[in-house]
Amino acid sequence: MSDRIHSSTGAATGADGAFAQAVRDALCHLPGLGGAAGTHAVGLASDMAIMSLLALSAYLMLLVGRVSFGQQAFFGLGAYASGVLSAMFQVPLGLALAAGAAFGALCSWLLALPTLRLSGLHYAVATLAFGEMARIALGWWHWQRPGEDGPVGPAGIEGFRDIRWLLENDVSPAQYLGLTLLVLLGVLVLLMRAERLRLGVGLRMVGQDDTLAAAQGIAVDRLRLFAAALAGGLAALGGGLYAHRTTYIEPAVFDPMLGVHAVGYALLGGLGTALGPLLGVMLDLGLLDASRLLPGWRMVIFGGLVALFLRWRPRGLLDETLVHRIATAWRLRRGTAGTPGLAPMPSPPNLSRRKTP
Amino acid sequence: MTGLLQTTIDGLLEGGSYAIVGLGLSLTFGSLRRLNLAYGATAMLAAYLGAWLHIRHQAPVWLVAVSVVVAATAIGWYVERLCFAGARDDTAPSRGAPIAGTDGREVVALASSFAIWMQLEQLAVNLLPRHLNAFPSLAASGDWALGALLIRPDRLLVALLAAALILGLAAWLERSRAGLAWRATADQRTAAHLVGMPVARLQTLAFAVACALSGVAAFAVLAIDGQVTPMFGMWVLLKGLVAAMLGGLGSVRGVLWGGLLLGVVEAHAQSLLGAQGREFATYALLFVVLVAPWRRGDRGAPLGGLRA
Amino acid sequence: MLEITDLATAYGKIEALKGVSLSAKAGEVTCLLGPNGAGKSTLMLTLAGILKPQRGSVKFEGEELVGKTPADIVARGLALVPENRLVFPALTVRENLMAGAYKRRDTAAIRSDIDAMFGRFPRLQERVDQLAGTLSGGEQQMLAVARALMSRPRLLLMDEPSVGLAPLVVAEIFAIIRQLHAEGVSLFVVEQNAHMALKVAQHFYLMEQGRVSFSGSPGELADDDVIQRAYLGQKRAA
């Protein structure tokens, strides 16, 4: 390979040896071409995709005006549920993931019922409490079935080993990344489509001002429950993907900090579009973590950014205004006639007081 | 029977720690109507600074105690500037409610405070990367016997300290002119302006005192344990939150009852269900208190006001 | 006593006061009328120092008040009874009165003033240890006035004291205004109830859309046709 690089760059002399070496090094870091570096990149991308699902889950709740510190519970419940199905009952991956997601959606919906009318503060704390209750409960769960290499199943605090569906079915990390990205893409398309429908608009209205939304005839409670169920399902889906990627899960992973990060990603990346949370994930996992920039200061920077943004740009980077501007510019470039929207209102009658003659 | 009584006493003594830990949180919520999620992390970073002084510089106990309290106050100032300064200016038009709803601003402050929580926790862990870090220990060497019952004198001391601080603060709030001002400012901010109270100064002071109290609490609790771990921040926040909520957020005396109740519930849960059961009982109690149907009246608007 | 010149206050980009100029004489009851949204409350809050004006000046007994904190303004002898009373709901009636005297340090005089307030407002005496939030609207209004009086103001500002109250209570409020006037307290009252105001005030201003549009005596007010129609409802005696 070095010969080919040398000739393609036209450099053949020793003086350029250093440059050639640098090019070789760089090529090694691309996924698929290098050894450890490539695997690392694939792994990182998978992690980012999985975290994006959790961040989207937090984002959905933020859309309807709720800060939830409990989404990690559904992430964990989904991880355990799909792990149980695939490792203990040999259910195919797709089905296990779907069932896990459904389970997460159900649990989230159940939690939403009693917490529906809580004020924002109480709700945040209640979800935090619930998240911890779920984590502790998972630590109590012992259920094992005989497997190929011994008993397999959740073993309480020690966790759940040998979720090896991927290995048993010869799915490579790159292929799994592909699957994960596909799932994420599907979710994104779904969410972004929904934005244009009445459902999406309704959700945002509930988040902006639920009293006003109710006055407009929107079923606020039902929409909130729906958002909760969807959010729980997404988190659980992410959890299932996570369980299979790491093959080992334990309750300690699903702690409040995970949920807190998810909310942070959504808040930082922006609440204007489903791409916002992804941006947040990329900023943290991609930029700060992967680049090994200032290790040990990641949370300091990230936390500081979130706090600053909440002060000066509360809806995040990709907030509704920016998204609207981008969408309008895009539409203009594509030459679609005019912008869909309201016709300008007629000017109001002149009500200024006139002096009586 | 003695077993039950012993468990209850242990619970009450432990509850003293919870009460003292929750005092600052309740005070902040009462005077600013904001929940400071960075509260635990503030106490933790201050405690870590104290531990660092102890480990690296062999600082004497009194110096560690003072440093922890001062550090907690200083860190609290930083948190207040970043997250809660806006709370002092409710008459200003909102900059496009980030999280909407009648309590949108409160939730935003909550959100920024959790971001700072992340920051402070990481700073603490950067300072002392180990899991177990020594803290000056004032633990008692033995138990006192009261008939067939055993009482740990160090825990008793902390519980008494808690009671003294709480009841003292409550009496001060009820009887002094400054205490009246604190309560009035928390109750109706505009009216407090109108009668000439220095609202911004009072609220900053209340926040500072709350953080200083968190430092006192941190020192008291850790001096018994003799060590501090990275879990301390979360512990302070959660125990403090439950104790404060049980007694009613914003009620100073309430935090004492809340802490004692929590302690007793936990002690019995532990004897019945083990250590995990005890943790579970804490969160379950918090959850139940929050969604309790008989609290329907409070749910819509944020609770507020400082009550003795 | 009070000279307001070209005062302008904005909420963000919305100008609520567009350059207001008026004055209130010592020893008089000056009344400001106007429809909802005219900016009357904004004016009162600006005078009290709660809102900061963009430009203009407010001179109280020769001293400039713009830029001073609300605490300073109270110390100088100006007190506001705000719209919606704004009592301290979680404090008792007595504590509300004590709060009103916050800027004073003469404890003995404060105590005797509180007793005097109970003399003036006997209904408050009946409820002395009750939480102010549990009082009726009329009682809260009395409490708000009493609280403002506790700081011994030389000029009392009142923002819509009669709004939302039953007619009998409204009459009581205006009786108190008349009483205070007789005792030498200067008053600047914002009102929507022009009928009652006509009976107590010596000078009127009318505010519309952030500007003063009329200034005159009660007689001139009663004579103006448009004002008649707008605020007094065409009940002009021929």
- The sequence of SSEs of chain B as H and E is HHHHEEEHHHHEHH
Distance between the termini of chain C: 37 Å
What can be said about the biggest beta sheet of chain C?
6 strands, mixed
The CATH topology of the domain at 2-85 and 152-232 in chain C corresponds to Rossmann fold
User: What is the CA-based Rg of chain B, rounded?
Assistant: 19 Å
Query: What strand line-up does the widest sheet of chain B have?
Result: 1-4
At the first level of CATH, what is the class of the domain at 2-85 and 152-232 in chain C?
Answer: Alpha Beta
CATH architecture of the domain at 2-85 and 152-232 in chain C: 3-Layer(aba) Sandwich
Helix content estimate of chain B: over 70%
Sheet/helix structural class of chain B: mainly alpha
How many alpha or pi helices of chain C?
10
Tally the helices of chain B: what do you get?
Answer: 10
- Under CATH, the homologous superfamily of the domain at 2-85 and 152-232 in chain C reads P-loop containing nucleotide triphosphate hydrolases
For the record, the count of structural domains of chain B works out to: 1
Low-confidence stretches of chain C: 234-238
Please tell me about this protein's structure.
The complex is a heterotrimer of chains A (357), B (308) and C (238). In chain A, 67% of the residues lie in helices and 2% in strands. Chain A is built from 15 helices and two strands. Chain A has a two-stranded antiparallel sheet. Residues 1-34 and 353-357 of chain A have low confidence and may be disordered. With 308 residues, chain B is mainly α. In chain B, a hairpin with a 2-residue loop joins strand 2 (144-146) and strand 3 (149-151). The radius of gyration of chain B is 19 Å and the shape is globular. The model of chain B is unreliable at 90-97 and 296-302 (pLDDT under 50). Chain C has a domain at 2-85 and 152-232: P-loop containing nucleotide triphosphate hydrolases (Rossmann fold, 3-Layer(aba) Sandwich), CATH 3.40.50. In chain C, 44% of the residues are buried. At the B-C interface, helix 6 and helix 7 of B face helix 2 and helix 3 of C.
